[in-house]
Amino acid sequence: MIKGFIFDLDGVLTDTAEYHYLAWKKLADRLGIQLDRKMNEQLKGISRMDSLDRILAIGNQMDRYTLEEKEKLADEKNEDYKELILEVTPNDLLPGIANLLADLRAKDIRLALASASKNGPVIMERLGIADMFDTVVDPATLDKGKPDPEIFIKGAQQLKLKPIECVGVEDAQAGIKSINAAGIFSVGVGTKEMMKEADYAVTSTKELKLEEILKRANQ
Fold this sequence. Notes:
By secondary structure, the chain is α/β, with parallel strands linked by helices.
């Protein structure tokens, strides 16, 4: 029986991808690297340092910086991003999410956030949903990023539930792989091709209906 839901943040609860893109592009421009929106798609669902490595690889600059210098670059990007997300409000919840969260709480289903973003708690406060969640996985405590299952396994542990008692919701292929590897029922939001490995998939968050998800997950 399903007792917990573990959510990704970007592309599921809200969409701050544009803010990430603008902050990464500002850094890339400064480094003389061309980053476009298509390349930015490759950064979805992965950690800040992994994202930086991919950007540096695009510009053939992987060997130009020490680990300490790369951490400084990632911090610079994050400071720009944090300024941008101050514009986030409850109106930025994606369609259908407010109703889904309300339905989950009405059924006393526990909620966790499993996002690679270290800014997750701040964004949740800005969205007005922080009080609805029982726990947030701190990405700084993880050894491996998605598609490794660690973040979702930890989410289930923090909810004090077994993986089989949880549903994971993601919009990135790496995230779906992570959920599946954790032994959790996976719900994907995105195109049929991108979400082909999900146990259940919808094309938009407004299609996320609790009764349908529970019916499928409890089969």
